[in-house]
Fold each of these.
Amino acid sequence: MLFKNIKTKHKIVLAGVLLLLAFLLVPPVKFKNTTSTVLLDRNGQLLSATVSDEGMWQFPEVDTVPEKFAICLTQFEDAYFRYHLGVNPVSVIRATKQNIQARRIVSGASTIT
């Protein structure tokens, strides 16, 4: 095998670098400009919520949601959102390491972009 003599630590680093390169080289998926539908009653209580035409939860542009909500969402989902270009390499490496150690998927590196 090609990687027989390479230590596990080096394999993890190599896998992380290759994954990072894949994220940087693959163009982003472009979606139609649709958002999820939310139906509220006259008191603001949620009656129904549906996914967008693409079958995903898609929310309005940031400038159309309240600032406090945007802050809460970024802090909960991805505290480093403003410091990376759409993919947090530290999270990718962490998730890769955890998944390799567990020999199954136990962690991901999702973000809100």
Amino acid sequence: MEVFTKEALLIDILDTICTKLNIHSSAFVFLSRSYSDNEIQSLYSYFVRIEHSKKSLSTDEVISKIQEIKPDTSSQTAEATIHELIAAFQDEERFPWIISQLKL
């Protein structure tokens, strides 16, 4: 995390609030992991296609997709992102098919 930039400070405050209140938000996941607008749209489009088609899905497939969309992402970071997004999607009641496929 960058120290003392406005963005870094805001993310730190939001992280503290979300942690203390046990809030899971996909928006915060994308913000804290520095996803661009295009990267967010690409990943959401992928999730929507999977959700509507009810295609089977593995964690490895999602890791690959995240790395395709955001190439500087390690497998470990991609997997952590998936865990965070699944928790957020459960709280937001989004993508139930994907949640059922990725039972983490």
Amino acid sequence: SAHGQQIQERAYQEIQDVYPDGDAWEKCLIEERVPYVTALCQEILRYYTINPMSLPRRSVNDIDYHGVIIPAGTLFYMNAFAGDYDENHFIDPYTFNPERYLGDVDSTPNFAYGAGSRICLGAALANRELFTFFIRLISTFRILEPNNSKYAAILDAMEANNSPTALVSEPKPFKCRFEPRNKKLLESWLETSRKRAENDEHLIRD
């Protein structure tokens, strides 16, 4: 979509501003210095809630909820999707807008990893991996819609879910095009990665 292209190009320009020497491919492994890409990752996690109904929890004590007693041992499910689209928490939640995560952000920016003391232990690692992935992807390619529009991705999060009753969201099949921004630089980055992988393989064998 035109909106998606604007977001993509802004992310690319922000990467270029921080890494004008073209070293984002390597530097993203050791630092996180592009706030807009960090915000983009958080908005993806919010908008496309991968686990719409978080894993269940069981109450350990009786709970008085507005005069109704919920007994200990009751199974609870947190509707993470509803939380991520709560209009009391997110302005215009049905619009994909990474800028909502620029500036001050709540300690729980979204419910993709759950919430509270039982939040996913791998959240920090997953966020770093997402950041690295999108820095490299956007630095390397311009992502375009398919030549045939009937294969384009569905942008509505609910409609795009191929398994609406499953525990985890699964996108319906779609196609897109990847256009290298700089083929020479891409080949250099890939060669660096190949050498690192070969070296890591030798270290494991030794």
